[in-house]
Amino acid sequence: MRQYGPVTELPEYAERVLAVAELIPPGRVMTYGDVAEWLGEGGPRQVGRVMALYGGAVPWWRVVRADGVLLPGHELRALERYRAEGTPLREAGRSAEGHVPRLALARARWDGSGVTPPT
Question: What's the pTM?
Fold first, then answer.
């Protein structure tokens, strides 16, 4: 059993979601919905809830919103990691709040090919 912060025992679904986050290669991302679909269980909201509660101990910045907008409240931390990993970004338009780039999902998305989903 892995330990994620002060929590030592997680629900089985949470363990599986976090295991997927750990599999995503640097510079690539999966949406919340991608993770749920790949696992064949749950949906984007369930994955988002797991990431919000337990995701701090895994590469949380690699599990993202389907619209490519960086996680509100964590934009600068995520952006620093995306740039360090070479994750494809789209520059923000002038009307974008804070002029924060978005993820270029067409290029950054990882489909999990070559890896078996955690059971």
Answer: 0.86
